């Protein structure tokens, strides 16, 4: 199925004008601290289902059927394209619904029968250009666009966050018959995450199973790392409630690979601890290329109080079952991404001595990684639970944290930080 440029233009205008009536984009504190002035109270957000705009999927064809753009793959987001002449194209990126956090995810492929350099302008619905473009020729290996091919248009006037980034960007891309992927971050669709789970599950002490299904019937996979089912001290690790937060996922992946690794420390740790992991909390949002929400149109990390959504309900039921089987949760972490690396623990004013281990752990990680400072912003708010970290502590007495990695943190450092975080946690938990 193909769009003509004229048709897509009108559909796009209709789509944008109808979306604008839904309300303004708003910023929420957990993922968008404004200048790190501290973690404010999370506003209470309703989590009952809201309508979601599914994107039209297909191929846009231009220049007498010689140049093509597509969003027809998992994780794609491309809501409209126009050919402006002179090998210049404008791309529209819109959100699944509003109000929504400003994390304008995009991902599309482009190719041509007439190899040449083209210019692509990215424009966003009520947002600015948060994510620096990544390029790939195989959909697996991505690198940042060369800075000489990148142009900021209307640069931001602020010094942090969305106010500091350009309104639009233009990219120069050399295209040929083979597709070029252009994406906001590396692509980790639900299939790619599942193949990572499967690769770890070849180890005798790693199993994986479904703990529920999303509204589009995608499985929620849980990975269990346990040498011995009598090891009742347990960790709960989750990631990617928010689809674009790939850097948090990359750190989580390294964290888990370290705990499931072959070091003497990891082997010893697994004798006394069981590790439960949901690496992809929002597969519908990820595969649909959402900016933040699930298919219920809801921010999952506001639903750990009312549990209106299948994804949060599945983890709640899993944790309740494990607690009733006698597991004692000794640590919980939820990996996210934001403008820069930051830790959001619960304040020991609220958690008492139970929560102190989280601060010892942060201190030990920071000592080993002096090359990049991470801010620490504790929250003292235990009610309503609403976010996973708070629910983990209030209902299951887990010392817990929101572990945030920067959108632009170097990928090698993300992997190192995930590994160091795992090593320091195993060291602290294995002391007794
Ligand atoms: Zn997040």
Task: Provide structural commentary.
This protein has 432 residues and is of the alpha/beta class. It has two domains: 2-183, Immunoglobulin-like (Sandwich), CATH 2.60.40.3120; 190-429, Aminopeptidase (3-Layer(aba) Sandwich). 27% of the residues lie in helices and 25% in strands. It has helices at 5-20, 190-200, 246-259, 264-272, 283-287, 310-324, 348-351, 356-368, 388-396, 411-429; strands at residues 2-3, 59-62, 67-70, 80-85, 88-93, 107-112, 116-124, 134-136, 143-144, 150-153, 168-175, 180-183, 206-213, 219-225, 233-239, 273-278, 328-338, 342-345, 375-376, 400-406. The strands form three sheets. Strands 13-14-16-15-17-20-18-19 form an eight-stranded mixed beta sheet, with helices on both faces. 43% of the residues are buried. The structure holds zinc ion. Residues 31, 242, 245, 336 line the site of zinc ion.
Question: SSE layout and pairings?
Answer:
Elements: E1 2-3, H1 5-20, E2 59-62, E3 67-70, E4 80-85, E5 88-93, E6 107-112, E7 116-124, E8 134-136, E9 143-144, E10 150-153, E11 168-175, E12 180-183, H2 190-200, E13 206-213, E14 219-225, E15 233-239, H3 246-259, H4 264-272, E16 273-278, H5 283-287, H6 310-324, E17 328-338, E18 342-345, H7 348-351, H8 356-368, E19 375-376, H9 388-396, E20 400-406, H10 411-429
Parallel strand pairs: 1-2, 5-7, 15-16, 15-17, 17-20, 18-19
Antiparallel strand pairs: 2-3, 3-6, 4-5, 6-12, 7-11, 8-9, 8-12, 10-11, 13-14, 14-16, 18-20
Helix pairs in contact: 3-10, 8-10
The protein binds zinc ion.
